[in-house]
Specification:
The protein has 8 helices and 10 strands. It is α/β, with parallel strands linked by helices and 269 residues long. The strands form 2 sheets. Strands 6-7-8-3-9-10 form a 6-stranded mixed sheet, with helices on both faces. A 4-stranded antiparallel sheet has the order 2-1-4-5, covered by helices on one side. Strand 1 and strand 2 form a beta hairpin. The radius of gyration is 18 Å and the shape is globular.
Length: 269
Amino acid sequence: MSAARPPEGAHTVVAEGAGTPAGAAAAAALPRSEVLDVKGLSAGYGPMRVLHDLDLSVQAGERVGLVGLNGHGKSTLFYAIAGLTGWQRGSVRLNGHEVGRTRSQGPGRYTHLIVRRGLALIPQGDEIFHGLTVEEHLDSGAFTPRAWRERAQRKERVLAIFPPLVKLMRMAVGRLSGGERRMVAIGRGLMAEASLFLVDEPSLGLAPKIGKGVMDALMSVDLGLSAMVIAEQNLALLEGRVDRIIGMHAGKLKGEASAHLGFQTTREK
C-alpha cells in the first residue's frame, strides 16, 4: 500500500513492513533506545565558538525537526556530531558508543569511524560530484561492507522513493535539474547502513512544490529503530509531521515542543 504520490515524483514507499498498519504497530511495539546522546557540546572553527554547551537526546524511531535561521549553528551541530568542526569538546554518544572527543585540530580524522558506528550525514545544498552518474553517487553512499553487499536492494528502495531517478541512472549528475540533484544527494545518504540520519536543509534553494515533494519523501522513509534529525528553516514543512521540533538560536537549543502541541515551546534548563 502506498500513499498518494507527492509532487515532482517523490512518493511514499513500503519497505520491510513500513507504511502498513502492521508495520507501524510493530515499530511502535519495539522498545525505544537512545540513538544519540549529546551532553555539554561546544564546537567552532578557529577562534570562533558556534555551539555553546548543547544537550540533545534522540530516541530510536524518532523524527526530530531542528529549526533556526541561517548562521545559528544547525549545520555546525551536524558537523560536530560527525567530527567535522575545527574544534570541539563535550560528549557525543552514538548507539551507546562515545564518538565525540575533545579536539583542537584535525577535522574529519575520525569521521569514517563515526560513519561505521551508524551515522549518515546528508549535507545542505547539492554536495555532489558533477562528473559521476546517478548510480555511481548512490553506490558511493553504501560505505560500509554490509551496505555495499546490499547495494542492489538499497538502490531499489531509493528508486522507489524517487522514481524520476530510474531513467537517469546512467546520466552525469551535473546535467540534472536542482530537484533531481537533491533527490540524488538524499538517496545517497539513504543508501547508508545508518541508525542516525542527519538531513541538513533539504528544501534549501528549491521551488516550494519541489521542496515539499522532497520532504514528503523523507517522511515516507521507514525508520524502524533508526532516527532522523532534519534541520530546516521552513517550519511549515515540519508542522505535524515530526515527533519533536527544537528551536536553535545563536548556537543554543532554545526550546522544544511536540508538533502536536501547537509549537508552544518550553525553555530547556
